[in-house]
Amino acid sequence: MLRAVELFSGIGGMHCALDFVDLNYEIIAAIDINPTANLVYESNFPNAPAMNRTIEGISLNQWEKWNADIWLMSPPCQPFTRQGKQEDLNDRRTDGFVHLMKSILPQLKAKPKYILLENVSGFEYSQAHQLLLDTLQAHNYYYEQYLLSPIQFGIPNSRLRFYLIAKQQEKPIETYSSSILTRISNFERLYNKLRQKFPSKGLSLEENSLHENDQITDRCSHSSEILVQPDQSIYINDFLISNENQDFELNEKQLERGLHVCDIITCHAKRSFCFTKSYGKYFEGTGSLFRTLSNRIRYFTPKEIANLHCFPLNYQFPEQITTRQAYSLLGNSLSVFVVGVLLENLFERS
């Protein structure tokens, strides 16, 4: 059984990916300092040992006791985002990651055999990225780096992210590649599983009228790197809870303020823009809006965004979590499908 530690665990996207790939695993610790994220995590995974702790506050002895086979991590992205100050290692939110690379992994006798990391596009230019590579090379890890987006696999959402998968080798590695790959194979099994999870609902002639804005264009991240056939791209309709939802419609004031800057798609779109933690708070650059069959404009619901991230169908937010909090947590989360594909390749499964 694979012994896994989730670092910066958030709402459990890595945990969901392990389930999606059908790995025989045990979560031995899920660590995050966000109490709201931990509440959502614990409500969905009540048997997993979630810890509201800083990485720096965990002793080396505890890491030895855990004796993990794999570290799954999604460190805070704010130090590397285009919208942020890009303070990199000077940002205190990198302290946990730096502690792992400088103090834990080098001293750990029971090093993890596998490591998977996810972060924003742009991380690859950071000092933190160079620290990661230097540490992996110093301890004989073979690694592959990727820039991937769900839209490449037919999922109608752009969410370009940096990924690294690493496996410790017994023999020294003579040379390392600096290449960052934008394509990956060995995803067909998971694609078929995804289609069983989100089968085609079909569209009527009325619903299936062509809207130019619904098509995949070069405004979609990695649209030039699509890995599926055109007829394999999935309609947004298959991820919706319902077409109409009055609770999430924009009011007149919101329409006046945001309509001219918003990206608006319909049920037959094969794309949507990346949903950020500011979705529902700001309009421009935070994610697409939805035009219903009655020509109303509404937000995507948190559950629909979770579907686009390929979270399990039974994944829920506790009642005390507000819509704004759910949007923020999802904006900081990840694509379960893409992480699943990386796990499939990391373990060389087919």
From TrEMBL:
A GO CC term attached to the entry: nucleus
Q: Where are the transmembrane segments?
A: none
The biological process GO terms on file are: methylation
- Give any Pfam family that matches: DNA_methylase
Assigned keywords, A-Z:
Methyltransferase, S-adenosyl-L-methionine, Transferase
Instruction: Note whether Methyltransferase occurs among the keywords.
Output: yes
Which residues are the active-site ones? Answer: 77
User: Superkingdom, according to UniProt?
Assistant: Eukaryota
Tell me which family the UniProt entry assigns to this protein: Belongs to the class I-like SAM-binding methyltransferase superfamily. C5-methyltransferase family.
Extract the NCBIfam families matched here.
dcm
Mind telling me what this protein is named? Answer: DNA (cytosine-5-)-methyltransferase
Q: What is the organism of origin for this protein? A: Rotaria magnacalcarata
